[in-house]
Amino acid sequence: MCDENLPGRVLASAAKAVEGIIPVKSKSVYEKEYSRFIQWTNDNSVKTVNETVLLAYFQELTADFSPNSLWTKFSMLRKELMVKKVVNSAKKFSQLEAYLKQRSKGYQPKKSKVLTREQVLTFLKNASDESFLMIKIALVKGVFGACRRDELVKMKRSDVRDMGEHILVNIPASKNDKPRSFMVIEDNEMDALRLIRSYISRRPLHETNDRFFLCLRGGRCTAQPVGKNTIGAIPSKIAAFLGLPDAKSYTGHCLRRTAATLHANAGGSVLNLKQLGGWKSSTVAEGYVDDSECSKRKNAGLICGVNKSVDIKTSSQFSSVTDSKGVNFSGHFTNCTFEIKQKE
């Protein structure tokens, strides 16, 4: 049956469903990508759209864009072509996908540098509150919550709740539409709770803007919210303060990468890391864990024969005597006694 023979109500419902294929918040970006392609077809007197045309288009884009960018452009353009019914929705473009995969082989994307725990603590300790308080708060929240730049920009005052022993921060909307929350706890080295409370106390008494990050002038917050470019430049300012080389390599993604790296280096699991960063896929989290100092140290210990395991029996009496060198204890223990004795 042709679409023309379907009832109007059915066609309207289908059209509404198709509109939902393109993310609302990214619709303008998708439209812009589609317009570029249409302009290219006009410039090259192309009257039809098929895989051969797309191969030619992306081959030309290869000179100016990285493999990651090419995949992003392909994904957006394919959806736009489907929505606008320029191509069949079942079309797979297998040759084009094979071409993009080949271009991606061996490609290492340029990533933001990360801060070490020592560098984070040094900045929080040595940078003055009067000049760097807002930057300190962004650093604390970025590290505790693995926050993206956009999440910090859009964070509202109502998203931050002081619970006494800790501060609870909600991130209702993220890049992957997966809400999450995190805690900022008392830490003598970071002094995080005092910093956040100090910043909140400097907000205007009669607030007209619910954005959490407001500009600081003369020790008080103004009504002007902090913009995305200012938030994005925070890591490079921290790096410059610390005298780190190539400060501009600490980009807006630095805080999120720093949080994930610190978490993985401390022995965090893939599941814990996914919960921290809100990743749906395990791929990114696995990358951090595999590349962590903790993982490398464990592998080196296994090779050297240093790491030993202790057999743990559940819900029964069990005793064991073992050399404690290189032994790692993990798990939930109840009614247990551990005796650690120095070798004579």
TrEMBL record:
Transmembrane segments: none
InterPro entries per the UniProt record, alphabetical: DNA_brk_join_enz (IPR011010), Integrase-like_cat_sf (IPR013762), Integrase_catalytic (IPR002104), Tyrosine_recombinase_XerCD (IPR050090)
Matching PROSITE patterns: TYR_RECOMBINASE
One GO biological process term: DNA integration
Any coiled-coil regions, as ranges: none
Pfam families: Phage_integrase (PF00589)
Keyword DNA-binding assigned: yes
Molecular function via GO: DNA binding
Organism this protein belongs to: Zophobas morio
Start and end residues of each Tyr recombinase domain: 110-301
Lineage: Eukaryota, Metazoa, Ecdysozoa, Arthropoda, Hexapoda
Protein name from the UniProt record: Tyr recombinase domain-containing protein
